[in-house]
Every structure is written in structure tokens, then in C-alpha cells.
Amino acid sequence: MATLVPPPTTTTVPPANSNSAAAAESEKIDYMKLPCPIPYEEIHREALMSLKPELFEGMRFDFTKGLNQKFSLSHSVFMGPTELPTQSADVVKIPTAHYEFGANFLDPQMMLVGRVMTDGRVNARVKCDLSENLSLKANGQLTGEPHMSHGMANFDYKGKDYRTQFQFGNGALLGASYIQSVTPHFSLGGEVFWAGQHRKSGIGYAARYNTDKMVAAGQVASTGLVALSYVQKISEKVSLASDFMYNYLSRDVTASFGYDYFLRQCRLRGKIDSNGCVSAFLEERLNMGLNFILSAEVDHKKKDYKFGFGLTVGE
Amino acid sequence: MFFNRGGGSIPADDGDGILSRVTSSITESPIVYQGRRAASDAAFVAKKLLKSTGRAAWIAGTTFLILVVPLIIEMDRDAQLSEFEMQQASLLGSGPAPPAGTK
Lengths: 315, 103
Hints:
The structure holds 2 protein chains of 2 kinds. By secondary structure, chain A is mostly beta strands. Chain A has helices at about 15-25, 45-50, and strands spanning about 60-65, 70-85, 90-105, 110-115, 120-130, 135-140, 150-160, 160-170, 175-180, 185-195, 200-210, 215-220, 225-235, 240-245, 250-260, 265-275, 275-285, 290-300, 305-315.
């Protein structure tokens, strides 16, 4: 940049020309040096981050205590109504309260996370790098109810400009996905999966275009799902996101639009969707390691109003 | 049907005087009937309209309360904070640099 500024005095034209030519030269895409795309399952990452905060109803308190650099313990308490799945349209809620104890081990090569809840659920997650390019991700859940426990393992291979993933799960679930960078900003991918227990199989395709200012992603699958998302970064603090979901088989359509504000003291996310549902999620930093959370969700159609607050201590 | 009833009632009221005959013929005239019907229809529509605008206003208001009010408050807080920091910096800027760093 510093070399570019002086010339505009007198003999501007030749250096500027050569500069722009050099710029054009570097603009020309080297197809052997494409960047590595992001994993197939995360192609909607930015949109999901802005549009799908962890909304909750009631009170929650999370406390994380680091015992040493790699090991930490977490405690969390939740109190509030939880929704019961029902056949009818109206909402049924029962008051619940539970405590969750967790232990985390974080290391650059290895991540182990375990959670135990008072209702008897045990959750475990493992992520470890087997070699430079190959990593293993696994998670499992054990519950007291029959047929609700499940386990899954993913092998991710990260290539120079592509990524592949193999997935194994209980219930004879098998899956594979592949994503490849086509140009520096554009990547294309596909997946196949087979669920032996439900005798279902499917195939899906995805495309993603990202620049510094925007991210657009689209996905279709043979399960009938069409998902499109678009995120526009207005500035480094503000981004606007929208998404569109259409299920070809059940004829469900949902479109939503949201904003995501990063301010120095807080992060605020708001969303409105086509089902008449408005939600906002505020994370306010009160102090170092002390966060206050407010969550609001109003469903005008179902007349379902959910408000929650929480505190996060530690981290 | 209306005319039949009106025609039947007028001879019966004959002896009661001209005033009641005129009033009854006015109140039972098709114009008054239609006018009354139109008025009740208008009232019904107005009531419905008022109700739906009220509901729309309620939805718009609560949506505004959830989506926009926190945003305004937080942006205001952020602006205040940066203004405060600017003031602090301009106050300390004339003095020595280290206090501003240690602050």
C-alpha cells in the first residue's frame, strides 16, 4: 500500500497500469491452490449462528470452573416449564427442574466432554485428531428410556481443497459426504446416507458461496428438504441473516429474517419468521466471566410466550 | 311480505289519528328498514375492523418491544460507553500516556 501512494504525483500512469496488471495476474485463479472448504454439515453455519440461538424458557445458571489449563468442571441448573410433545395443536407444559454436572478435557489434539443429568441422561463427546488430516468425532447418549440411547462416530478427512466425512451410527446408520472448492469462493458438495433401521436412504447436494461480506448457501436432499440461507455482513459488528426452508413432501414452508449485533458489552440476536414467531436473545457481559442472558420468544399464532433469563459464570 | 304487513296494519290504525299512521308508515317504510339494516351492518363492520386493527396493533407493538427496544437500548449504551471513553482519552491525552494505558 505504501508503495502505491507516492506515484500519483506525476508519472502515475505506467506504474498504476503495471500494478493493476499484477493485480489482475493475482486475480487469476490458481486452481491448484484453492482454499479448504468448510465441512458439509456446517454449510449453513453463519446463518444458524445468527438465526438459531439457544432460546429457553425459565431460569438457568451455568458455572464453569477450570481446575487446570486443560481440565474443567461445569455445573448447571435449569428450572422452568418444558413443552411436552402432543398430537394436538395447543401447547402443554410441565414444570421441570434439573441439574447437570459436566467434566471437560480440552487439549489441541483431543477434546473429551461428559455430561450427567439428574434425570439419568449421560452424554459423552469425543473429538480427537488421529493424524494431521484425519480426525474422529464421536458422541453418545444413554438414557433411562428404551430406544432413546444413541451413538455416532464420524471420521473427517481434510484434504487440500476438499473434505470428506464418513458417519456410522447405531440403528445401522451410514453416511458419507464430500465437499470440494470449485473456485476460491464457491464450493459444491454432496452426501449419501442410509438408515438401516428405518429402511430409508437419501442423497443430498449443497452449494455455498462466500466472500468477506456475504455467505450464501443452498441445500437440497431427497428427503424433500430445500434449505437456502443468506447472510450479509453490514459491518464487523452487524450482520443480517435470512433463511428459507421448504419441505417438498410435507409442504412446510418457513422463511425467517434476523439480525445479529455484536456490541462491546453484549451480543443481541433478533429474528422474525413467517410462522408469526418473534424471538430475541441477549447476552450481556456484566463483568469478566460473568454473562447475563435474556431470551424471549413470542409465537403470535399459537399464543405461546416464552421468556427466560440466565447467568453464565466462568469461561 | 313487508308491504303486505304494512298494508294490513294501516286500516286497523285508521281510527287512532293521522300522527300514528304517519309514524308507523315511516317506521315501517322500506327506506327506514334498509337504513337500519345498513346502519347495523356498518356497526358490525366497524366493530370487526376495530377488533382486527387492535389485534394488529397488539402484534406490531409486542414485536417492536421484543425486536427493536432492546436494540435501541443496547446501541444507546454502546454509544454512551464510547463517548465516555472518548472523553476519558481526550482528558488523559493532554497528560502523560502511561495512566491511560494502566486504566
